[in-house]
Amino acid sequence: MKIDRSRYARTVVLTGAGVSVASGLRAYRGPNGVWEEHDVQRMGHVSAIKDRLADTWKLFGAMRGPVRTALPNPAHDALARWEAELHDDQQFPLVTQNVDGLHQRAGSRNVCEIHGNIMYSKCSSTDCTSVRFRDEDPHDVVVPTCPRCGGALRPDVVLFGESLPALASWTAKKALRDCDLFVAIGTSGTVAPASDYVRGAEYAGARTIYVDLEPMNPRNPAFKEEHLGHAEALLPELLGM
Ligand SMILES: [Zn+2]
Predict the structure, then answer these.
(1) Is 76 one of the catalytic residues?
(2) C-alpha angle with apex 193: 44 to 186, nearest 5 degrees?
(3) Rounded to the nearest whole angstrom, what is the distance from the C-alpha of residue 159 to the centroid of ligand 1?
(4) Residue of 30, 47, 157, 163 with fewest CB within 10 Å of its CB?
(5) pLDDT band at residue 104 under the 50/70/90 scheme
(6) DSSP-assigned letter for residue 120
């Protein structure tokens, strides 16, 4: 069933890696995933911040080149157009687990990046007052240092074992409390955050839709609809574009 965009006042969309696959960016998991080549869970773990930051940079710095040259695909474009065509009384936060910034490049404005953005660096010291900045350097040779305190810099992404940024999480959960439409695209429907978010949306009485290439396994009953296929083909169709 198509989504009649005029019917919903408070939509929350959650996107994951599946949305960026058609832009040539690989998922962590799955066939050809980054996961298969590197010990992602170790190299990208928060414990590496203390003494193995070179590992963190090796893993995430290498993604900067592909992300910089990747282009938004029709799934990103459809979501940007949805937001651009909203009426004044409609809300539409786009919550994303993707760190590639492609939603913004497609034109989405109200984006909540719960896992950070790989094209930004920040100081690894929580006491430092410097702010994150755009940084395209992969830093694959030397761990860069903070211009303010001299501490090590890190990519501005959420590492394994690290909690989500407070403001982004709060914004997402607040929007879910009274949403009337929740759509999860290209992300697992059975693990967090989608599994948490859909429960919140269901409780709020929202229509809940799951869009992904693979069916949920096991099926999460909080999603009332499941649409299977490539996001870049399915989304424009679902949204009547
Ligand atoms: Zn610093």
Answers:
(1) no
(2) 85
(3) 18
(4) 163
(5) very high
(6) E
